[in-house]
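#help-structures
NK: newbie question, is this the right format to request a structure? protein is 4-hydroxythreonine-4-phosphate dehydrogenase
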Amino acid sequence: MSSRALDCPVIVSCGDPSGIGPELAARAWEHFGARLPFVWIGDPAHLPRGTKIREISQPSEASTHASAGLPVLPHPFPAAAEPGKPDPANARAVIDVIARGVDLVMRGQGSALCTAPIHKKALHDGAGFAFPGHTEFLAHLAGVDRVVMMLASSNATPPLRVVPATIHIALADVPTAFTPQLLRDTVRITAQGLRRDFGFDTPRIAVAGLNPHAGEGGAMGHEELDWMNDEIASLRAEGYALSGPLPADTLFHARARQTYDAVICAYHDQALIPIKTLDFDGGVNITLGLPFVRTSPDHGTAYDIAGLGRANPASLIAALEMAARMGAARGA
Ligand SMILES: NC(=O)C1=CN([C@@H]2O[C@H](COP(=O)(O)OP(=O)(O)OC[C@H]3O[C@@H](n4cnc5c(N)ncnc54)[C@H](O)[C@@H]3O)[C@@H](O)[C@H]2O)C=CC1
Ligand SMILES: NCC(=O)COP(=O)(O)O
C-alpha cells in the first residue's frame, strides 16, 4: 500500500444508525483489518456490542490502529439507535456526519468518501433534509451544478455500469425532466468518469430509449424521434463513442454488455433493476463529477433486518475497495 493511502484513508459516514450501516462497518473492518484502513465517522454507541474500535482524532491515525480495531472518529448523537426505527432526534447528526466526511476529503485528509445508507424520508421528516439523496447533497456541498449517479457491478462478466439520467423523481415526471441538455451533460460527465476513474481511453456509451422498443419508429412513443436521435448524432459528431437510442429490454444480457462500457438510462428503475438483479451483493454506487471520490453500497437501510446480524457486507466491502482504488489512482 502506498504511503499516501496510509496517511489518507477512505472516510466512511455512518448513515442511518437504525439501519444496517453500523453493523456492516464492523463487518467490513473484520474483513479488511489493516489491509485497507478506513475511518468510520459516527457514534461508537451505535456499533454492535463487542465491536473492537479505536477512537482516533484524525484520519491519518487510522493505519496505525486498524489492525487492533475499527478506527472511529467519534461523532456523538443525541439518541440511541433502535434497529429498524429511525429516531427523528438523530436526523441532524446523520446529515452532519456526511458533511464532516466531505470536509475531510475536500481538505485532503481522506482519499475518498464511502457513504453508508441513509433513509431519505427519515432525514426529511426529522431534519427537513431537502435533497433526494446523497448524490444531490454532495453536489451541493462541493458546489457542483451537475453530477451523475453510476452503479457498477463487481462480480458480473462482462461487467455492467449503469447511469440513470433522471434519478429520484416520479415516473410521471421523467419525460419532462429527460431533456437534450440533461442527456448531453450526463454523457459528458460519464465519459470523463470512465476515462479518469475506470481507465477507458475512448469509453463506449450506450443510451437506452425512453419508450418500449426505443419508440418503434414512433409507434410506441415519440421522444426518440423528437430529439434523442438528433442529440446522440450530434454528440457522436463531437467524438463520443455513443450508440442508441437502443431498446432497453435487450440491452443488459451478457452479449449486449460486451458492446459498451456504460449505459445511460432514462430513469431510475430502468438502470437499477438490471444492476441489482445481476449483482446486488457486489453493486457499488459512485457519484461522478465531484471533486472527490464517492462510493456507496448499492442497497439501502434494510430496516427489516437491521440488528439481526443477517446483513451481507459484500456491497460495502466492494464500495470500499472501489473507493480506495479510485482514490489512489487520483492521487497518483
Ligand atoms: N445510498 C443510500 O443511502 C441508499 C439509501 N436507500 C434508502 O434506503 C431505504 C430503504 O430502501 P429499500 O428500497 O427498502 O431498499 P433496501 O436496499 O434497504 O432493502 C431492500 C431489500 O434488500 C434487503 N437488503 C438490503 N441490503 C441488504 C444487505 N446488505 N444484506 C442482505 N439483505 C439486504 C433488505 O433486507 C430488503 O429486504 C429508503 O429510504 C431508500 O431511499 C436505498 C438505496 C441506497
Ligand atoms: N436508489 C439509489 C439510491 O437511493 C442512492 O441514492 P444516493 O443517496 O446515493 O443519492
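mod (FA): yep, format's fine, and the C-alpha cells are attached above. The chain has two domains: 1-144+290-332, 148-288.
NK: thank you!
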